[in-house]
Specification:
Helices cover 83% and strands 0% of the residues. It contains six helices and no strands. With 133 residues, the chain is mainly α. 17% of the residues are buried.
């Protein structure tokens, strides 16, 4: 990790912030999509809910990051600033998180919908923070 941090700092000194931002966001977006496809393949092979959760999470995270990467590359177009299309990758990301909580819940030997408590707590806390600021 330290090597990558140093490499990014050197890239910043040589090419500037914008270049490193675009290259970094582009690389992690594309790698994340590849990781997502790997987990999707693993899910198809072994049908584990954790692999499906990882596929959703990585694809959602990558597409959310990719949204902002394309946004910056395109010169911050107004049409992307408040587009509801952004909710599609966010929904993938949230679905992955729900699947993760469900798997964690089962690994503790719990059953039912109680895995939704941390999800609801996160949504409520996020709402409180939004309203407070």
């Amino acid at each position: 990790m330290m090597f990558l941090a140093v490499l990014l700092q050197l890239g910043y000194l040589v090419a500037g912030y914008d270049a490193m931002y675009q290259i970094g966001y582009g690389a992690i977006t594309l790698m994340g999509l590849m990781i997502s496809l790997t987990f999707l393949w693993l899910y198809v092979q072994r049908a584990t809910p954790l692999a499906l959760g990882m596929a959703y999470s990585w694809s959602g995270a990558s597409l959310v990051l990719g949204w902002w990467w394309i946004f910056a590359l395109a010169g911050e177009p107004v049409v992307m600033t408040q587009s509801t299309a952004h909710f599609v990758p966010l929904a993938l990301y949230l679905a992955g998180a729900l699947l993760h909580f469900s798997v964690i819940h089962r690994s503790f030997g719990c059953h039912g919908l109680t895995f939704l408590w941390p999800v609801l707590a996160a949504a409520i806390l996020s709402t409180i923070i939004y309203l407070a600021i």
